[in-house]
Amino acid sequence: MNLRVIQWNISFLNTIDKKINYLLTKILLKKCVFILEEVRREDFEVIKNRIDYNFIYSLDIRKPGKFEGRNRKLGVLIGFSKDIKILSSGVIERSLFPERTLFAEMKLDGIKINILGFHSLTGVDYKRAKSAQFAAIADFLNDKQFNFLCFDANEPKIDCYDISKLEFFDQKGDKGKPASLVFGVNRSHELSDSFRDYISIKKEEYLYKTPLEVSFIVTGGIKKRYDYIFSSSNWKVINLEYLYKESVTAGSDHALVLGDFRV
Prior knowledge:
Layout: E1 2-9, H1 17-24, E2 32-39, H2 41-50, E3 54-57, H3 58-61, E4 75-80, E5 85-90, E6 101-108, E7 111-119, H4 123-126, H5 128-143, E8 148-152, H6 177-183, E9 192-193, H7 194-198, E10 216-218, E11 222-224, E12 227-231, E13 236-243, H8 244-249, E14 256-262
Helix pairs in contact: 5-6
């Protein structure tokens, strides 16, 4: 069985219509799931009216308080093609920003699939709160088994093929350890970076390349790979693409990451 998985931070900037138009060119009628970050309530309403999928939305689970700011009104959305049955869903309640997380257990052709999406806090704005968020996610991943993990990490500082040489940002003395628990060499779970798996047959081309792909460009024009799909070993990655230029044209500042998997 094949499954398409899409990860995309759509950005709260710019209008939603062009982003939906682009997303519609990538999703499938069957056997497809997508995870979006930075989804405002008003954008969710447009998405669910234009895309014939089933949805779960983190701001339906952890609703913003009446006195909370805009930063608590950016949610995570998971969309499922209608052949997929949703069994359960929720957010990571122990995290500092639960609405930046969303998980679901689903069933497709008799196979159960567990997926978690999250959006990391930025170190510039949140410092050690970013680390605490990573630690809570690492705990959750350690306690439960997932098949797919889709996220915008705002990490690493330096990306490379050799996972032992990844460098993470130091958030007020934490030396990047909480981030490394999610996708470093000492991660708390057994999922692996699907793109790194996909390029392993031609790894010589990537041994000295950094970043391995471009998913975001920070101030100063520095290229980063901040966006990821991780997968369990029973799901073989058969295609993995970072579509940065197309995604920016559609109005985001992050690449849509498209993965095709087979079990």
